[in-house]
Amino acid sequence: MGLERKDLTLCERSLRTILLYGGFLCLGMCFSVVGPTLQDLAFKLNTNTSNMATIYTARSGGLIIGCLIGGLLLERFHRVRVLAVSYFCSGVFTGLLPWCASLELLIGVMLLNGINMGMVDTASTVWCLDLWRVKPGPFVHALHFSFSVGTFIAPLIAEPFLIPTQITNTRAANFNETKSRNLKELLMQEYEANYYEEISYGVIGLFMAAIGIVTFAVSLVNSADPKRVPEQHHSNPKLQPWPTRLLVAAIILLVLLHFLIYGGIEIAYGQLIATYAVVLQEEKPSDRSDWPNS
């Protein structure tokens, strides 16, 4: 059943849209920062890339759960506040990633982060459609453009804090073959003294959490703006001719297949570009993986 909604001025809608773009930009950064730092996290946890790849499975599963949960929560609770809490939690979990002391804990945090990312994705799109009901297309496109900007920026933020390739390559060459404890201790001391990937994760997580706090404040200023307008009459799909219904079903199926393939390539392979550049191509330390990822 529809609920009444107070109309917003053009300025109010524009400011909220800018806030949405900022949130999606941060979402892109949270999503993309793991790729170029994967080798660093593997070095810190003393594991290999094959084991580290499981964190993407955990995040993808979380995204599925988050999208489903997000849709249910948006129907029952204040939409903007659901989005604000998702922003904040996603920022917190992103900041916690480099502090995980074991692979199992990292997988768990990635799962929780994926759930919140899925909720952010769903709630942001819904709020954008709520704000621009007449012609929402350009604003939704710009929303996803801001996500792309975030995925471009995140590797550049992470680059100053990445471990030089010489250290990670030395680890791969020696820890697995000779099990040199002295070398491991030396490299870990150098790593702990000079390289702090926690900073890049912390900066990105802080931005995301700040967006969540501002969004929650906006929901308190005007609590009526996210609520649904009274439902309007829509044509019954059963009254449409069969060719039209089949065409719509075919288009939906093709779009689903497109995103299934695209999402798999982007998440499963795109995020491993950094590892490919460092491990297989043996890039120089100055040619770290931030540029290929961006």
UniProtKB/TrEMBL annotation:
The chain crosses the membrane at residues 18-35, 55-74, 81-99, 139-158, 199-221, 242-262. One of its GO terms (molecular function) is transmembrane transporter activity. The keyword Transmembrane applies. Keywords: Membrane, Transmembrane, Transmembrane helix. SUPFAM superfamilies: MFS general substrate transporter. Gene3D superfamilies: MFS general substrate transporter like domains. It holds the Pfam family MFS_1. It comes from the Eukaryota. This is Uncharacterized protein.
